[in-house]
Amino acid sequence: MPTVVTEIYTKQPMVRPKLNNMKLLDKLKWRYATKAMNGKNVSQAKIDKIIEAVSLAPSSSGLQPYEIIVITNQEVKDKIRPIAWNQSVISDCSHLLVFAAWDTYTAERINIVFDLTNKIRDLKNEGWENYRKLLLDTYPQKDAEENFNHAAKQAYIALAIAITAAALQDIDSTPMEGFDAEAVDNYLGLREKGLRSCVILAIGYRDVENDWLVNLKKVRKSIEDLVTIMD
Ligand SMILES: Cc1cc2nc3c(=O)[nH]c(=O)nc-3n(C[C@H](O)[C@H](O)[C@H](O)COP(=O)(O)O)c2cc1C
Questions:
Q1: Cβ of residue 29 lying under 6 Å from some atom of ligand 1
Q2: Is residue 92 included in any domain, yes or no?
Q3: CA 34 → CA 11, 54, 169, 188, distances in Å?
Q4: Which of 26, 155, 173, 219 has CB atoms 3.0–4.6 Å from 99's, for a disulfide?
Q5: Domain for residue 217, yes or no?
Q6: Per-position pLDDT tens, the chain of length 231
Q7: Residue 65: CB within 6 Å of ligand 1?
Q8: Count: domains in the chain
Q9: What is the CATH number of the domain that holds 164?
Q10: Nearest ligand 1 atom to alpha carbon 84
């Protein structure tokens, strides 16, 4: 019988490295899912950095199985608000990002990524081509819903990077699943493009006067409850 791995789990106080002066941690402590924004515009240069960071997000097999729709048009934001739980940040943000995952994996979509890789690296590699075949023999045959759920997971990684890139530039953001995805898809015509919205991100600046959450403490479970160390 193999050792049952849970027997060697330990729950012990974590020795915390001195990270207090790490800028990233300060910014992550500063950020919060903003509940009210003040309508101020975020500069294009800062938005460009967020988008570039998103484009650098890792994804399963490097497929980047999603697209981002960046909305600044006020009318469009105002139309989305009522189909997104009437959340005020949708109309009061500067930019609204809609993360839309592929509705499924197709051979064409997979091949585009592998061909791009070969072109950029200017080489054709047997191992890589075998891996392409493996994906082609696996994903397209799967149920579209399963594939969409897998693609959506990749989009959430990009979401986390967008939130982090915003915070590093002192920009607020609100990730939102509180919306009617089908209604948003219909309004933006996403399904016709083989896309389905999975999460949206309002980007802007906090309205300190009107946001009930701005001065409340951040709540997180302890590191000890979050992490199990296996030495
Ligand atoms: C995927 C996802 C969906 C969320 N959906 C909403 C939402 O629809 N509306 C909202 O106000 N906050 C939403 N949140 C914010 C969370 O409630 C918030 O991140 C969590 O309570 C932790 O608080 P903090 O981000 O302020 O530190 C969402 C967060 C994530 C990651």
A1: no
A2: yes
A3: 34, 20, 15, 24
A4: 155
A5: yes
A6: 455 655 555 565 555 555 556 899 999 999 999 999 999 999 999 999 999 999 999 999 999 999 999 999 999 999 999 999 999 999 999 999 999 999 999 999 999 999 999 999 999 999 999 999 999 999 999 999 999 999 999 999 999 999 999 999 999 999 999 999 999 999 999 999 999 999 999 999 999 999 999 999 999 999 999 999 999
A7: no
A8: 1
A9: 3.40.109.10
A10: 8
From residue 131, how far is each of 37, 110, 113, 145, 207 by CA, in Å?
46, 11, 12, 23, 49
Q: Which domain holds residue 68?
A: 5-105+142-226
In a domain, 83, yes or no: yes
Give the count of beta carbons closer than 10 Å to the beta carbon of residue 52.
Answer: 10
Q: Ligand 1 centroid to 174 CA: how many Å?
A: 7
Q: Is 158 in the pocket of ligand 1 (CB under 6 A)?
A: no
Is the shortest distance between the CB of 199 and ligand 1 below 6 Å? Answer: yes
